[in-house]
Amino acid sequence: MWSMPDPIRESFRALILHEGSDEPRAEITTLTRRDLPEEDVLVEVAYSSMNYKDALAITGAGPVVRSYPMVPGIDLAGTVVESSSPDYRPGDRVILTGWGIGEVHWGGMAEYACVRSEHLVPIPDGRDAFWAMSVGTAGLTAMLALMALDEAGVRPAPRSPEPEIPGEETADASGARPERLPVLVTAASGGVGSIAVSLLAGAGHYVVASSGRHESWPFLRSLGAAEVIEREELEQPASPLEQQRWAGAVDSVGGSTLARVLAETRYGGAVASCGLVGGGALHTTVMPFILRAVRLLGVNSVLTPKELRLAAWERLARELTPGMLHSFTRVIPLEEVQGMARQMVSGRGRGRTVVQLRGEA
């Protein structure tokens, strides 16, 4: 059994989900160390964060939680208190995202978490727990999508002209090709989308953001979006091949939106798919893949291997400064988590939401 050394409190607060008839019953309660699962690292949690998956779990709008009672929160960042792992010592600052916390294992919305050492990564040098949760799963997912597009050859530097395809426009009215082919970000007002816009623009891409929330358009332009288009424009049924528009895309919508994005992606382009807020079904054809050599890249941050996680977090530390995150990050206490979850499920979330548990040491 773990002991709770001085000055750590014997009891602490946590948000607990209990199974309900219609939706989970959420309550803030007091726990002791004896209530926590037995793993090899005990972390004092400074911050967690709110993701769309958390909102689904807390409201019961999606089948996220596998068993009850459950501490939600698929992210956490804080300081190691005790460790029986040779990889971490008390005082180490760590991040945990994914690996089933908040779903299968108790998550980050508690002042302490007992977790598996192999699921942790260190907070990058020069960054803190608040920065880590301002990024969170959303930012990690956005970076993994950007890295996948990079590997697929979707880069801001001009590419060789695509083969001409009869009956399709690939140039503007003057006959010239744009210097920077546009990269699309769908659901751009959300956590993944907003960070993807910032990262892609910072890397030199010409970013087109899609959002149905007009009040967010100035915000998206401030993040670096060169253009903002209506969400509905991408929800219209698509022919097998549409006019070529996108060098690449980061899509967290899925469904009919993803089908249209694939049909509009230019020859040799790629689409990083990382979400399904618009539905899990994909009704498309093989035409974009065999006639335009389009690649569909799946992005899953939950089970990302440690080496790739470390590379992504180090790149995030270089490319997303605390000042850049400030404009789209809000901080809430544990008491406001349920209300924020309802906002996110109803489509009214924007940017990133950090949940403060204990604050920085």
Overall description:
The protein has 361 residues and is α/β, with parallel strands linked by helices. It has two domains: 11-122 and 328-356, Medium-chain alcohol dehydrogenases, catalytic domain (Quinone Oxidoreductase, Chain A, domain 1); 137-298, Rossmann fold, CATH 3.40.50.720. 26% of the residues lie in helices and 25% in strands. It is built from nine helices and 15 strands. The strands form three sheets. Strands 3, 4, 5, 6, 7, 14 and 15 form a seven-stranded mixed beta sheet that branches. Strands 10-9-8-11-12-13 form a six-stranded parallel beta sheet, with helices on both faces. Strands 1-2 form a two-stranded antiparallel sheet. α2 packs across α3. The longest helix has 23 residues, at 129-151. The two termini are 25 Å apart. The model is unreliable at 1-6 and 159-178 (pLDDT under 50).
CATH homologous superfamily label of the largest domain: NAD(P)-binding Rossmann-like Domain
Radius of gyration: 21 Å
How large a portion of the residues is in β-strands, by DSSP E? 15-25%
The helix/strand class is alpha/beta
The number of helical runs is 9
Q: Into which percent range does the helicity of residues fall? A: 25-40%
**What would CATH call the architecture of the largest domain?**
3-Layer(aba) Sandwich
Mean pLDDT: 89
Write down the domain tally.
2
The major pleated sheet works out as: 7 strands, mixed
* Order of helix and strand elements from N to C terminus: EEEHEEEEHEHEHEEHEHEHHEHE
Using the alpha-carbon principal axes, give the shape. Answer: globular
Structure summary, number of beta strands? 15
What is the class of the largest domain in the CATH system?
Answer: Alpha Beta
Which fold name is given in CATH as the topology of the largest domain?
Rossmann fold
